[in-house]
Structures are given as structure tokens and as C-alpha cells.
Design brief:
Low-confidence stretches: none
Number of strands: 0
Helix content: 55-70%
Bound molecules: zinc ion
Order of helices and strands: HHHH
Structural class: mainly alpha
């Protein structure tokens, strides 16, 4: 995997990357990053690799939560809209209000990707959907506020 260490010493699933700049350290004779000069230890490389994988998993879950938030937000918005036309009344505050808040919280999970490293993002495959996350947050807040106002 990397020449600076025996291949069987590297047991992580992903190739080693510089903890500072994310440079791919495969095939190097030393653990010194040629890109930024960072002198890494094997422990740091392993930790970086595990952290990137954790991040990638969290990013995938964040996108799933944003999509769940969209479904909840749209459902809540429909309930709130039906109430405005006099079709429903008593359940508005509960469904619209709580549903809207839940949607906003799930949408907010999508913004966690802002803190993720480049390495973690590259492993996640699906890019973070900031636009959808922002839309779900706004949809959820507007629905919650409208539901309280309509009730
Ligand atoms: Zn580096």
C-alpha cells in the first residue's frame, strides 16, 4: 500500500491520506507528505482513515435524513393547506407543527456536511445536497409557523 510501511501493516480499507491536506500517500518512501510537508505517524494515518470512513457514513445518513425531512415536510404542508381550506382543524397544530419542526431538524442534518473533510466527502460518493437541505429547513419552519397560526 505504501512503501514506507510494509503492505500488510496497513489494514484499513482505504489508502492512507495526509491528515493535514488529504494528499494520497500511497507509494511514498517516507511518511512525510510531499504536498504540505506534514510528518505523519502510522497511528495518525490510521486515525485519519477511520475518521474519513466515519464521516462518509455520516454524510450518507445525512442525505437520507434530508430526504426523510422532505417527505415529512411536504406531508405536513398538505395538512396545513387542507386546514386553510376548512377540511381539517383539530389535528393541524399537532401534525403541521410537529411535522414541520421534524422536517426542519432533518433538513439541518444535511448541513453537517459543511464540517466534513474533503477526504470524507470523496468517500461518501453522493455529494451533500445543500440546496435540498436548505429547502427542507425553510419548508419545515414555514409549515410549523403556519400550522400554529391556522390552529
Ligand atoms: Zn499533506
Amino acid at each position: 500500500m505504501i512503501r514506507a510501511v510494509a503492505a500488510d501493516e496497513w489494514t484499513e480499507q482505504r489508502p492512507p491520506r495526509c491528515p493535514e491536506c488529504g494528499y494520497d500517500l500511497r507509494g511514498l518512501a517516507t511518511l512525510k507528505c510531499p504536498e504540505c510537508g506534514f510528518q505523519a505517524t502510522m497511528g495518525e494515518l490510521r486515525e485519519e482513515s477511520r475518521r474519513a470512513r466515519r464521516e462518509a457514513t455520516e454524510l450518507r445518513q445525512a442525505n437520507d435524513q434530508v430526504r426523510l425531512g422532505l417527505t415529512i415536510g411536504l406531508t405536513s404542508a398538505v395538512v396545513a393547506a387542507l386546514t386553510a381550506f376548512g377540511q381539517l382543524t383539530s389535528i393541524t397544530l399537532v401534525v403541521g407543527g410537529l411535522g414541520g419542526l421534524a422536517a426542519a431538524v432533518y433538513g439541518g442534518q444535511g448541513l453537517r456536511a459543511l464540517k466534513a473533510t474533503e477526504h470524507g466527502r470523496s468517500l461518501a460518493k453522493e455529494p451533500p445536497n445543500y440546496m435540498l437541505a436548505a429547502f427542507v429547513i425553510v419548508l419545515g419552519v414555514v409549515t410549523a409557523v403556519a400550522s400554529v397560526w391556522l390552529a
